[in-house]
């Protein structure tokens, strides 16, 4: 039984567009941080309202340069991979991990201070929504529709039929 699902052009395009937009967001955030020499995650981590000891450890003098470098590197990697449509499952997992860390540092839970947010949230914020969108990207093979993996996918199909 063929389990391949067929999507309409609009559905496929919407999934690819979602991947590209999220990729652009990650890439932009990485580039901005990379070219802003004064940027550091220290303030964000030190103001964490949940799992404070973990986030303060990440912001400690011995860890902050590693934390900043890994954050920038992960943002750039996820953004580039999603835009190119290459290793999108890996990029999605890394992106979800980053977003969940951002979410857990300042969760919109009742009774927790929200700090400088872009609105009044309750339980769900933009980090959690973007993580859910990346989960959708993880589940759907958008890079075989549009991306570098499409080139490899076509070669595999030709080899299988040879």
From TrEMBL:
Membrane topology field: Multi-pass membrane protein
Transmembrane residue ranges: 7-27, 63-83, 90-109, 129-148
Superkingdom, taxonomy of origin: Bacteria
Cellular localisation: Membrane
InterPro entries noted in UniProt: DoxX
Coiled-coil region(s): none
Keyword Transferase carried by entry: no
Pfam families the UniProt entry points to: DoxX (PF07681)
Alphabetized UniProt keyword annotations: Membrane, Transmembrane, Transmembrane helix
Name of the protein in its database record: DoxX family membrane protein
């Amino acid at each position: 039984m063929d389990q391949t699902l067929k999507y309409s052009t609009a559905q496929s395009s919407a999934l690819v567009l979602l991947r590209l937009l999220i990729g652009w967001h990650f890439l932009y955030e990485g580039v901005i941080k990379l070219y802003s020499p004064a940027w550091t995650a220290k303030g964000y981590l030190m103001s964490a309202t949940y799992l404070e000891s973990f986030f303060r450890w990440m912001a400690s003098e011995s860890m902050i340069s590693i934390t900043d470098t890994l954050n920038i590197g992960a943002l750039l990697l996820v953004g580039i991979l999603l835009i190119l449509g290459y290793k999108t499952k890996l990029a999605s997992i890394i992106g979800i991990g980053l977003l969940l860390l951002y979410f857990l540092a300042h969760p919109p839970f009742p009774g927790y201070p929200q700090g400088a947010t872009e609105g009044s949230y309750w339980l769900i914020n933009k980090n959690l929504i973007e993580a859910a969108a990346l989960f959708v990207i993880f589940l759907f093979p958008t890079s075989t529709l549009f991306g570098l993996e499409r080139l490899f996918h076509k070669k595999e199909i030709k080899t299988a039929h040879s």
